[in-house]
Every structure is written in C-alpha cells, then in structure tokens.
Amino acid sequence: MESVNGKSNAVSINSRNFPSIKLLSQKKITNEYIVNSAVNNQVQAQLAVVLTTNEVLHWDIINQVKLLSIKGHGKSITGIKFSTETPSVLFTGSLDGQIHVWDLRSSASPVQTFSDDSDGPLKPFTCFDLNLDEKFLCAGTELIRDDSFIIFWDRRTSKSFGGYWNSHTDEITHVEFSSTCNSSVATASLDCLINIFDLTQSTEDDALVNTLNTEASVIKFTWGTDDHISCITGNEDYQFWSAEQTKPLLLKTRDDISLDSESKIDCLINTFQASQSFYLAAGTYHGSVQLYCQKGKHLKSVGLLADGHTDVVRTISYNKGHCLVTGGEDGQICTWKICL
User: Fold this and answer.
1) WD repeat positions in this chain (predicted)?
2) In percent, how much of the chain has pLDDT > 90?
C-alpha cells in the first residue's frame, strides 16, 4: 500500500483559481435527494436524475428546464442508462424486479420491460448494463435464499436466454460489459469478488475468465478500454487492477486519499474514465468534490469542485464535451467545465 506525499501542492488546486475547472451552472431542481444520474452523450446537455421518491427527471442542462418526469417503479431505482444507439431511449432498473425501456418522446408507459420470475416472485434487480451494440442486457440481483443471479436477455425478444448463479455468494452490486468486446462482462458483489466472463462459452464455469479478490465488498467499478478496472469498496478503499492479474496495482484507503486533499475526505463517490484515463471523485459532507487521476501506479490530485453543492454529492457523470455533472442531497444539479 502506498502513502501519498506532496500535500503542499494541493492548496492551489481548486475551482476558484485552477483554470481547468469552472462552475458553469447551479440549479436546485428538487427538495428530494438526487441519488443517481446519467448523461445523454448523443444529445447535447440532456441529463436524467433519480430521486429518493423513485421518480426520474429528464433535464435540459443548458436551458435549466425539466423536460419530463417519469414515475414507473414501485421500489428503489438501482440503475439508469441512456441508449447509445437511440438518443430518445432511456433504461431504468429497480428492486421492484423490472427494467423498463422508455421512449422519452412519449413517456406515459414503458415501451419494453424485462423481468424474471422463473424461480417464483420477480427477482429484485440491483444493477444492469447493455453490451456494445445493445443487443444483450444483463442484470444482477439481491441474494435470493442462498443464490444471487446474473441474468441475460435478448433485447429484440425481451426473453431471457440464461444466467449465472454459482460464481457469487452474495448480492450483485455492479455489472458492466466491456467497452471493446461485445461478449465480455464483469460482475461485482458484496462477496468481495469481481468476476470476468466470456459469454461465448457454453457453461458458467468455462465462461469465468478471471476473479479479482478485493478482500472487501465491491460497491462499484469502471472497466476501461485498456482492460484495467478501478473500483470502490464498502471499506471506502480505492483499488486499481489489471483485468488479467490477481493482485491490485494500487490500493488506497480513504485516509490515504485525504492526505492529498485540501480537506478531509468523507466519502468516495464514483470512478469513471475520460480521455483514456481513470478518475476518482471523492467528496466531503459539505458538498465539495476532489478529483484524482490514475497515473500509472499513483493517484494524483487534479482539482477541486467547490462552491457548488451545500450537502453530500451522491452522483457524478462525465459528458464527452469535457463537462462533469454532479447531483446531491441538496437537490441541486451543478455542471462543471473541466479539462481532463
């Protein structure tokens, strides 16, 4: 485990005097917590946010107006994603056991729904993702009796074509398809494992290519184009892996990360990839967000998003136009211009 030195440089890096970071807009849109978000990289300045009321707001960032409100789930929404093939399509998944597909031009009801009741009641979905060409959908479930399920559907028919249930022993927390290969998917769980599967294989045992043991529950991860994985654990650790190795290339605790920050880091928000680099967003209880960039085997502080939020930031999304969008417990959406 590496320690971080060089705290003296961090004081000059903030949104007020660091030229690569600028607060573009700030808008309170709700009295509820914003807990998740997704940007539409096919249509400029469109965002969807998830509220604690299980409502989804479709938002125009530039004009600062709500385009529509979607209410289609009876339990917590655990995933949201815009289609990369059809700009007007939005996916939402929930613990109510349904993944809805919405046409944002006419949102009265979902245009397609995926679910699985093959073992009794609908399985509650904790996460989902689509592969590169969006022909296949994958979702993970809570622990059901002694099993957690990874289920696959053919998007063209809405029918499940199988699943895995022997590779994890606890709730699935994150699934993500490879951004370079249609038939590769990675899954994470509270059982401390990230599993990587080759879906061209006929059995679950044969499909399991590699297992990364993080030794802590995995909350979320990012699988990059260079076949590396960055993840956040339930212990508030940041880990960086090669998908082909069995030990992390870098592991830092939240306390380690705080050493290279202007103030004490209270939570790790998310990891994401931009401009071929991995980034970590870490926040404080007062609403500031410290950004770090993965540089080889080091995590380097690159800027502070400050004077935007007044409470904990829960979600951060990267727009391909070099813009970050944040949402939090203050009900605000903030957009930031940043050179990454």
Assistant:
1) 70-112, 306-340
2) 79
Three-state DSSP state, 9:
helix
Return the biggest CA–CA distance within the chain. 58
Tell me, letter by letter, the H, E, C secondary structure of 114-163: ECCCCCCCCCCEEEEEECCCCCEEEEEECCECCECCEEEEECCCCEEEEE
Of 312, 338, 316, which Cα lies nearest the Cα of 326?
316
Amino acid at 223: W
C-alpha distance from residue 124 to each of 19, 162, 173 (Å) = 45, 16, 12
Side chain identity at 281, as an amino acid letter?
Answer: A
pLDDT over 90 (residue 238): yes
pLDDT digits (tens, 9 = 90+) for 180-219: 999 999 999 999 999 999 999 999 999 999 999 999 999 9
pTM: 0.91
Residue whose entry in the numeric block shows the structure tokens 């096919």: 42
Contacts 24+ apart (CB under 8 A), 281-284: 281/313, 281/316, 282/254, 282/257, 283/312, 283/313, 284/312
Torsion sign (Cα): 148, 153, 158, 160: negative
- The per-residue pLDDT for range 251-272, each reduced to its tens digit, is 999 999 988 777 789 999 999 9
Please, which residues have CB within 8 angstroms of residue 9's CB and are 6 or more apart in sequence?
301
Q: List the one residue out of 290, 234, 260 whose CA is nearest residue 2.
A: 260
DSSP letter string over 199-266? TTSSSHHHHEEEEEE-SS-EEEEEE-TTSEEEEEETTSEEEEEETT-SS-SEEEEHHHHHTTSSS---
pLDDT of residue 10: 30
Residue 264: what residue type?
K
Give the length of the chain.
Answer: 340
Residues 6+ apart with CB under 8 A from 69: 55, 56, 57, 58
Burial class from Cβ neighbours inside 10 Å (0-12, 13-18, 19+) for residue 97 reads: buried
Confidence of residue 340 (pLDDT cuts 50, 70, 90): low
